[in-house]
Amino acid sequence: MNERQRLANLLRNCSKNLLLDQGMQAHGTVMKMGLGFDLMLSNDLIDMYGKCGRTGMACAVFDRMPERNVVSWTALMCGYLQNGNAKGSLSLFSKMGLSEIKPNEFTFSINLKASGFVGIAENGMQIHNMCTKSGFEWVTVVSNSILDMYTKCGRVSEAARMFNVMPVKNLITWNAMIAGYTLKGNGERALLLFRQMQGMGEVPDEYTITSTLKACSGLGAIRQGSQIHSSLITRGFLCSVRTMIAGALVDLYVKCSHLTEAQRIFDQIEQKNLVSWSALILGYAQECNLLQAMDLFRQLRVSIHHQVDGFILSSLMGVFADFALVEQDEAEKLFNETPVRNVISWTIMITGYGKHGLGRKSIRLFHQMQSEDIEPDGVTYLAVLSACSHSGLVEECQEYFSRLCHDRWIERNVEHYACMVDLLGRAGRLKEAKNLIDSMPLKPNVGILQTLLSACKVHGDLEIGREVGETLLRLDGGNPVNYVMLSNIYAEAGYWKECERLRKLFKMKGLKKEAGRSWVEIDKEVHFFYNRDETHPLTEKIHQKLKEMEQRIKSEIGYVHGVRFALHDVEEESKEESLRVHSEKLAIGLALVCGEVEKGHKTIRVFKNLRVCGDCHVFIKGLSKVLKVVFLVRDANRFHKFENGLCSCGDYW
DNA sequence: CTAGGGTTAG
């Protein structure tokens, strides 16, 4: 074997096994031997550098070549694509179009994949056209790539058309189509196809199984999912491809809330990968079992086999934010540790700060991500808008909204408008909010109308409130919340007859308000309370404590009951009494009785399933001042951070 | 010598 061939084999081996150092050495030898201009060796070098993540070097080799063939171009594009630079590959593709060299099936499939990555269908369709004209369309690899490109660009029906007319299908064709349906939330279709392919004697592989399991978990189809699971066991499939499928199985049971089964499978996995770890950790977090989730995370960190990645760190950031741990800067620490931050990890972080009323920090991150060349998408905009709105940053919010409107790559949805309605509503600019809804190019949904109605309630706007409220009763007549809000508005305006009418309607429809429930964690034990709950053994002491606190607040800062908040509930409640026994107050009372303050805790965390009542809001503000303690209350709507007599929500709960 | 399909996060 001559030296040239030996070097080529060496380079291919380095490329295959990602041996950068050895590859660079071989590069040196190539140059020393005077083979720097050899076409085949240069192509191998481009491939090797691309695979090893050195696109700069690949590019340098490419640029120095006196002549290039289609392989040189394609290898470089592939390098770009595999290192996440899909646009780079596409621009090389257009550059190549200006040269004499014609693309082949390899070039096409790489750039179809790149188009799918970028997600713009028009771009991919152009390449599809070129495939048709050059006769590559029905080369199976190319048709598969076209099909996949369409699903990634959200054109599932185009993909299905391709699937139906393809003269030759292979396993990859089926897999791509099943994955496409799954990705676009059409799980039923995916399962149908899965059965169909088996009916045609096609044998599924690990790709098929993982996509199909994902379809099941998306549908919450535990029965079908576990059927596949058991068929895997009987066919002995699990032994050979355990790690591949395990993540999807863990996720399936997690999504269906079968944590015990998820844990059981997880324990059986011999080589656990990060996917299964993160699926299980998030499963526990989703069940509000923060202790178990954190414990698993600690185990993951000390296990030597795993380098914690950006994916799991950013998921956990979201968990921390939801459990109000942003205060301890846990999420921020994780964020700084995250090796590769993408648009999702940034968005999680922006959302986290937004939920805690730290709008300025959200804005700072929003700019920082762009300075690091990560482009925001629709969800990012939603995060920053909602952060601004929750922090009352009116001008900023309007500015980002108009930026969003001018960005033609991002689709606006009702949620974006709902943020603006919330913002205007807080500011008492209800007419403008109403106009925005009336003039927006989208159909208003129940959520945005409820946002407006709730603003009407806060500002006591009868005129708009009545109109929106009555609309909501028509659109969403089964939802108790609408009755309560509207009847509050009527009552405050003194429209008692209307109140009575709503109360009757409410009873007639057999509706029930969701029972208010709060909980607090003390010494690693969670205590739950309903309104008027007297089942806790310390109930008497709790009532005593609350009375004592009321007195203190009254005498020290002149607190009065905000009785208006309880006056007009649809169900009858005695005012004074009901105010004293709201579940959130009981939970706080218990924390005080148990001496959480004396133990030196600076922060007391309370959770509530509904929104915090207005009177309790006033009360907790007072408490935070006289006790010099921070209360962090997570309710159905947002976090409230009570500190020194003020609340982060600026009294707009 | 270059290529196509899957699992965990907002």
TrEMBL record:
<dbReference type="GO" id="GO:0003723">
    <property type="term" value="F:RNA binding"/>
</dbReference>
<dbReference type="InterPro" id="IPR046848">
    <property type="entry name" value="E_motif"/>
</dbReference>
<dbReference type="Pfam" id="PF01535">
    <property type="entry name" value="PPR"/>
</dbReference>
<dbReference type="GO" id="GO:0008270">
    <property type="term" value="F:zinc ion binding"/>
</dbReference>
<protein>
    <submittedName>
        <fullName>Pentatricopeptide repeat-containing protein At3g15130 isoform X2</fullName>
    </submittedName>
</protein>
<dbReference type="Pfam" id="PF14432">
    <property type="entry name" value="DYW_deaminase"/>
</dbReference>
<dbReference type="InterPro" id="IPR046960">
    <property type="entry name" value="PPR_At4g14850-like_plant"/>
</dbReference>
<feature type="repeat" description="PPR">
    <location>
        <begin position="342"/>
        <end position="376"/>
    </location>
</feature>
<dbReference type="InterPro" id="IPR032867">
    <property type="entry name" value="DYW_dom"/>
</dbReference>
<dbReference type="InterPro" id="IPR011990">
    <property type="entry name" value="TPR-like_helical_dom_sf"/>
</dbReference>
<dbReference type="Pfam" id="PF13041">
    <property type="entry name" value="PPR_2"/>
</dbReference>
<feature type="domain" description="DYW">
    <location>
        <begin position="558"/>
        <end position="653"/>
    </location>
</feature>
<dbReference type="GO" id="GO:0099402">
    <property type="term" value="P:plant organ development"/>
</dbReference>
<dbReference type="InterPro" id="IPR002885">
    <property type="entry name" value="PPR_rpt"/>
</dbReference>
<keyword id="KW-0677">Repeat</keyword>
<dbReference type="GO" id="GO:0009451">
    <property type="term" value="P:RNA modification"/>
</dbReference>
<comment type="similarity">
    <text>Belongs to the PPR family. PCMP-H subfamily.</text>
</comment>
<feature type="repeat" description="PPR">
    <location>
        <begin position="170"/>
        <end position="204"/>
    </location>
</feature>
<dbReference type="Pfam" id="PF20431">
    <property type="entry name" value="E_motif"/>
</dbReference>
<feature type="repeat" description="PPR">
    <location>
        <begin position="69"/>
        <end position="103"/>
    </location>
</feature>
